[in-house]
């Protein structure tokens, strides 16, 4: 844990240095699409009413000066499969965004969607010696959380204190200076495969970029897609991506659960390609332009001309009805939603005070998805688009970019994590004390 | 299986899709190019270096340098020797013929010449070294005329010193040298060390000595602080260091009232203005001594005692 603490702290320091330099890059590496935003932190804090942009929920200390997105390469189910291909994709998108921005990007914040995320709720408790909560007590209680065995090769991606309790008073956001005898905390820890993170770090490093932070993609998209009330009252955000569907649950402005369903939009495309015997690009085009999940009588008469794209005669021009297409897509989408339902059930979403569910991600643009999701997941469904941020071009505001926008918010205002608090002195490794002793002995 | 196979002879293979990703080198170069310092170095430094290097290589050859400087000089000369810049005549105003001739001789170039070749400031400094010229106004007028308006110093007094005789103006500045006093008999004469420093006072004294001017031979500066007015017959009027003109006027008043200077007096000592002292001539003193029965004085001012004793003895 101490090693992780150091690396995460180092990333925080890099992030702070990047903010001082004023330019930071956002890298959303997805399975089907990779996006890069270049943010400039100029700290003016001004917004222009003439742009038709409101106060933007306090997200005004940065603006997007360059954005680019391209097709992702070498990725499979949110994980890097071919390192060199992914590196090329990162180079492409970073070069394009830099060209738009006109500045060089040195520090990036990236997100990770795959890697078998696992959520843990940890609880810790200490007695307060001073009778009141002091700064170091917060760190002590966080360190006192008893961590279960995460498994081999698991890395902690997020460790956020969700709730503090002093004596009987619970639900405190900031327990400092509260009077009491006992401090307890709940911490949400998200772990992912260490190798997946290692691959991502390696890929980014090979593009001459420095990693200033890393976040879970489901967390990032929830931060962009959930409005503040939903984050406060409790909501689930479902991010329909290409290679997987991210699920995260927020309450009291903290993420308390995150998971990933390993079925995504690419599987739907594969089904269409197999069912209609068309190449994958054609299937992708059919899905995005004419896809749907609710068939009506009109869809039977709505014939789609398919250009087979192959050289042979009979594959060249065919026509299928739109109802056929919907008939292929719907079972797969239902399967995704069933998977999400299972994840939500496992997380105990039913017992949450609010049953709000927000659909985001590029897959949420399938017409009729909200109706289907309402039947499977629950009645309170809405399709969420990412928060407005200053300077973002129109084509980057659709739901597919919510994790990129969420990463930008994460870069500007990261939530407190465990490593943001000073580690209590008694848990410092003995090695550093020995080193200090040796230094004194050698120099005095 | 495709039922129709394309067997056309020159069928092009499908074009290989280009990888849209920049190569690692290209990516690094682009990022380097986005650095402001690098960009500035390439945009300003490289052209500047190239220009400097080309110029340096071209100028490294002696002949090319000579050609270049010759060309530049030719162009400059061509412009400077245009008709508009030519000075054809020199007009000197307010100068005596001697000075006029000297001025024309001082001009470093032969007219007609370009006005760029005439350095008016240097010429003026050179001309101002002539003592006779008090001020000169040199300018090139339209029409190619070099105009010199000269103001000469007016001779006011002669100064005889150990090295000769000089003419001074009324401020004591040298105008010219003369070989003899007879060259300018109209000017008063002064003598002595430092007399040129008190020329205005000397002129005032000469004005005050108006009634006896025919008898005045000159003024002698004594000890660089006071004047002696020398008259003929060896008479002199010793004037104080301060208030010399007033003392002079007092002496003139005495002379007018009592014909003082017509008597046998060798010196009028006015150095103490409140107590004028007269030094009598040897004949006058002997007359007085004779009347008193005292021994007479010889021409050297000594008492003729021996002769008296010899006569008496």
TrEMBL record, chain A:
A Pfam family reported for this protein in Swiss-Prot or TrEMBL: FtsA
Subcellular location(s) per record: Cell membrane
An example Gene Ontology biological process: cell division
Domain SHS2 per the UniProt entry, residue ranges: 24-225
Similarity comment: Belongs to the FtsA/MreB family.
Subunit structure: Self-interacts. Interacts with FtsZ.
The protein's name: Cell division protein FtsA
Originating organism: Paracoccus acridae
Top-level taxonomy: Bacteria, Pseudomonadati, Pseudomonadota, Alphaproteobacteria, Rhodobacterales
From TrEMBL, chain B:
Keywords noted in UniProt: Cell cycle, Cell division, Cell inner membrane, Cell membrane, Membrane, Transmembrane, Transmembrane helix
Record-stated family: Belongs to the FtsQ/DivIB family. FtsQ subfamily.
HAMAP family: FtsQ_subfam (MF_00911)
Residues of the POTRA domain: 85-153
Signal peptide segment: none
Chief place of localization: membrane
Membrane topology annotation: Single-pass type II membrane protein
Coiled coil: none
Protein name in the entry: Cell division protein FtsQ
Provenance organism: Paracoccus acridae
């Amino acid at each position: 844990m101490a090693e992780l603490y150091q690396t995460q702290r180092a990333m925080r320091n890099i992030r702070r240095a990047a903010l001082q330099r004023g330019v930071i890059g956002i890298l959303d590496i997805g399975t089907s699409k990779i996006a890069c935003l270049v943010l400039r932190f100029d700290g003016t804090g001004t917004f222009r009413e003439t742009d038709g942009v409101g106060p933007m929920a306090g997200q005004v200390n940065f603006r997007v000066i360059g954005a680019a997105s391209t097709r992702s390469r070498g990725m499979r189910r949110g994980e890097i499969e071919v390192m060199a291909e992914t590196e090329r994709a990162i180079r492409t998108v970073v070069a394009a965004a830099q060209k738009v921005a006109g500045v060089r990007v040195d520090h990036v914040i990236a997100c990770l969607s795959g890697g078998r995320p696992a959520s843990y709720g940890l609880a810790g408790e200490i007695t307060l010696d001073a009778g009141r909560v002091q700064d170091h007590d917060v760190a002590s209680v966080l360190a006192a959380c008893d961590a279960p065995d995460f498994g081999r090769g698991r890395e902690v991606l997020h460790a956020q204190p969700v709730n503090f309790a002093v004596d009987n008073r619970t639900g405190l956001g900031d327990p400092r200076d509260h009077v009491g005898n006992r401090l307890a905390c709940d911490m949400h820890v998200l772990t992912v495969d260490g190798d997946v993170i290692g691959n991502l770090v390696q890929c980014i490093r090979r593009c001459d970029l420095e990693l200033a932070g890393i976040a879970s993609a489901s967390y990032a998209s929830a931060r962009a897609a959930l409005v503040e009330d939903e984050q406060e009252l409790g909501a689930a955000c479902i991010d329909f991506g290409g290679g997987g569907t991210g699920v995260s649950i927020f309450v009291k402005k903290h993420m308390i659960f995150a998971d990933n369903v390993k079925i995504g939009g690419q599987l739907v495309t594969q089904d269409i390609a197999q069912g209609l015997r068309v190449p994958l690009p054609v299937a992708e085009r059919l899905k995005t332009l004419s896809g749907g999940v609710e068939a009506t009588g009109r869809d039977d008469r709505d014939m789609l001309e398919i250009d087979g794209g192959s050289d042979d005669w009979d594959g060249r021009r065919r026509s299928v009805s739109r109802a056929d297409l919907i008939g292929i897509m719907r079972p797969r989408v239902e399967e995704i939603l069933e998977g999400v339902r299972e994840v939500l059930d496992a997380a105990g979403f039913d017992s949450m005070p609010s049953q709000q569910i927000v659909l985001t991600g590029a897959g949420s643009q399938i017409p009729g998805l909200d109706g289907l999701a309402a039947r499977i997941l629950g009645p309170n469904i809405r399709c969420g688009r990412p928060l407005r941020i200053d300077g973002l071009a129109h084509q980057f505001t659709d739901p597919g970019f919510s994790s990129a926008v969420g990463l930008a918010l994460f870069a500007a205002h990261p939530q407190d994590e465990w490593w943001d608090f000073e580690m209590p002195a008694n848990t410092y490794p003995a090695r550093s004390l020995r080193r200090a002793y040796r230094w004194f002995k050698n120099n005095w | 299986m495709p039922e129709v196979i394309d067997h056309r002879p020159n069928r092009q293979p499908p074009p290989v899709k280009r990888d849209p990703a920049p190569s690692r080198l290209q990516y690094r170069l682009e990022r380097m190019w986005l650095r402001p310092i690098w960009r500035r170095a390439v945009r300003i430094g490289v052209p500047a270096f190239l220009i400097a290097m080309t110029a340096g290589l071209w100028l490294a050859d002696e002949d090319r340098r000579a050609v270049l400087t010759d060309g530049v000089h030719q162009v400059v000369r061509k412009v400077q020797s245009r008709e508009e810049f030519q000075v054809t005549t020199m007009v000197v105003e307010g100068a005596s013929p001697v000075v006029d001739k000297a001025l024309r001789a001082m001009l470093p170039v032969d007219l007609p010449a370009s006005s760029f070749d005439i350095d008016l400031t240097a010429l003026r400094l050179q001309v101002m070294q002539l003592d006779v010229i008090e001020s000169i106004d040199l300018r090139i007028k339209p029409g190619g005329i070099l105009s010199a308006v000269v103001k000469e110093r007016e001779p006011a007094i002669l100064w005889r010193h150990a090295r000769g005789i000089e003419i001074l103006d009324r401020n004591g500045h040298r105008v010219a040298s003369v070989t003899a006093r007879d060259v300018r008999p109209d000017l008063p004469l002064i003598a002595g060390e430092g007399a040129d420093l008190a020329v205005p006072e000397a002129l005032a004294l000469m004005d005050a000595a108006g009634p006896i001017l025919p008898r005045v031979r000159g003024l002698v500066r004594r000890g660089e602080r006071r004047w002696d007015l020398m008259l003929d017959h060896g008479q002199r009027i010793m004037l104080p260091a301060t208030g010399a003109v007033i003392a002079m006027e007092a002496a003139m008043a005495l002379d007018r009232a009592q014909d003082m200077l017509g008597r046998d007096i060798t010196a009028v000592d006015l150095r103490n203005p409140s107590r004028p002292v007269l030094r009598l001539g040897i004949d006058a003193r002997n007359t007085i001594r004779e009347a008193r029965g005292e021994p007479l004085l010889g021409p050297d001012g000594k008492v003729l005692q021996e002769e008296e004793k010899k006569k008496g003895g």
